Structure formats: C-alpha cells, structure tokens
Amino acid sequence: MKRKMNFSGRGGVFMFMAPVFLTLMMVICAGGPVYSAETQKAVVATVAPDYSSGAHSVVSVDPVGGPRSVQNDLDPTVSDITVASYENSFYILERTGRNNVTKYNIDNPANAIWQWSTEGDETNSNPHDLVFESEQKAYLLRYGSDTAWIVNPSATREADFKIGELDLSAYQYEGNAPGMHSGVIVDGKLFITLQRFDSTWTPQTAYVAVFDVTTDTEIDTGKGSGDMLGIPLPVKNPGAIQYLADNNTVYVQGSGHFFGTLEYSSGIAAIDPATYEVSTVLDDASSPPPRATSWAMRAGGTTPFTLLIPQRPARQDLR
Q: Which of 119-128, 191-200, 284-293 has the lowest mean pLDDT?
C-alpha cells in the first residue's frame, strides 16, 4: 500500500514522527564495565492516498546519515490516526469513527498490548493527543468533548485507565466542543491548545488553557475573558505546540482560516510559560505564505521546530 504525508490544521489525517528512546546495555568484555548506548527509532502514522486505511511504520534513526531499516504497514487500521510516545511505548490514537487508543512496545510494534475506548457519556470523543506527565499519568485530549481525560497509561485493566477529568467547557463556542488538539507540559503546567470552531468550521479566537499537573486545576493566567482563564492567541486554528528549553518559550503554530473566505490568521505565537505573555513570531500578513505554518513545527527529535517558507501565491490564487 502506497502512503503519503498529509497535514491538516483541524485534526484531520496527518503523518507524525515521534521518537522512542531505547537504552541498550552492552558488556564490552567478560568481567569488565557495562556501557550504555542510546539509539532512536521513529514511529510514523501513515495514510493511504485515498484515505481508505492507515497503519504505522517504525524507522531506525541512528546512525546519523543511515543506513535506515524500515518496518511498514504495521497493524493496519483506519486512516484518521496519530501517534504519541513515552519511553519504550507508543500509542496509536484512532480518531473519528473509532475513538480509541492502542498501546504498543517498540520491541514488538505490530502487536498491541491493549486497546481501550476514549468514549465517555458522549459519542465521537475524537482523541487528538496524549500528553505524558509520567509513566502512570497522562492527559488524553478529546477533540469532540468538553473534557480531557486524566489517564494511567500503565494500567492493565480498562477500568483503571481513566483516573480523572479536566473541564474545558468554558471554551465552547456556540455550543460546539472547544476543540482541544495538542498539549505540552512545562514546569509542572499543562498547556492545551483549543481551536474553537463554529458549526461552519470557521475558526474563532483560539486559546491555550493552562492546568497545574499536581492539583489538576486550571490556572487563571490573567489573560482570558469571562470564564475562559487561559491565553487568547494571535493566531487561529492552532496545531502543533512545542517547548524550547533554550529560551524557555512555548511556541504554538496556527494554520489560520483557509475554508471559505480567505483570512490571513495563521502564524507562530510565542508564550512565556511563567508570565503567560504572548507575542507573534511569524505573521502571515507580513511573512509569506499564509499556509506555510501548516508545516511550521514538528514535535520530537533534536530540532525544536522547522520553518518551511515557500513562495507566497497571489491572494486570488489561494484555495
């Protein structure tokens, strides 16, 4: 099955690379010291060209420059999938129509350890991200729901998987779910992107909600409006969120509004994780092109984010 990369700003089908770090112990000589060597593998969620199916691949990353080994078409499933990872495990999130999460070990990537539902009282919870605080605690962001789940990824029974909830109903727009899409944990705080579409898929003011991961209570950033305690963004339709330790900054990529009437509202925003001050790093109104930031950031690896800035087409040519 031939597959392609396809990125979508509102939680559609895309390919996502997540590094899984393994520690290999090697005895150099009998009775001698034990050395630790680190290698990396990339887990890639793949999609068929006609969107009829999906699967995942495992690609060796080391050594730099290759050669590479690839395992393709592992455990085929639906096309609307993404992947998250923590230590030696990775998790395939099946989204619209399936609504579940499946756990694998990198040493046995074709055989699931477990597969559990992400549905609660609602239907079509549409899981978009799994953000890890520890091996026993993670946050399951459910795009089609008002609540994120607090989960235990190490649970051995489905009944023990969900251990709590985060209420994000304040960020609804006209009764629509807030559209929690991606998250990152920085200094004991969980930052969650909220896309906030209306019923016609027109993006409204996007937010980043912030929660204390010790108490699992929302933090009032002092930047919000009314019951929305989070951080309003200068970009719409937020996708990737990434923390860069070198300058202690959280970056959020926004794809903007590209359905119907054209609106230049994409770009990259920067958030100070301590003061919650926000600034615009890349603005599509002044930096070409409007859709460049759909590919602007990637999670994982050693590079915090990568900018791809092709030629900006004329406004009337954008579709």
A: 284-293
Q: What is the SS3 string spanning 235-270?
A: CCCEEEEEEECCCCEEEEEECCECCCCCECCCEEEE
Render pLDDT for 68-78 as a digit per residue (tens, 0 to 9).
Answer: 899 999 999 99
In whole angstroms, give the CA distance from residue 208 to residue 199.
21
| Sign of the dihedral defined by the CA atoms of residues 115, 119, 125, 129, in that order | negative
CA distances from 157 to 154, 161, 286 (A): 9, 7, 52
Contacts of 317 (CB under 8 A, 6+ apart): none
- Length in residues, the chain: 319
**Is residue 294 helix, strand or coil?**
helix
State phi, psi for 270 to the nearest 5 degrees. Answer: -115, 135
Write the CB contacts of 151 (distance below 8 Å, at least 6 apart in sequence).
Answer: 130, 137, 138, 139, 140, 161, 162, 163
Task: For 180-229, write each residue's pLDDT tens digit.
Answer: 999 999 999 999 999 999 998 899 999 999 999 999 999 999 999 999 99
Contact assessment for residue 266 and residue 293, using Cβ atoms and an 8 Å cutoff: yes
Cα separation, 243 vs 246, whole angstroms: 9
Question: Is it the case that residue 164 has pLDDT exceeding 60?
Answer: yes
Report the alpha-carbon distance of residue 129 to residue 283 in Å, rounded: 26
| Across 47-61, 176-190, 286-300, 303-317, least confident range | 303-317
The answer to whether 102 and 84 are in contact (CB under 8 A) is: no
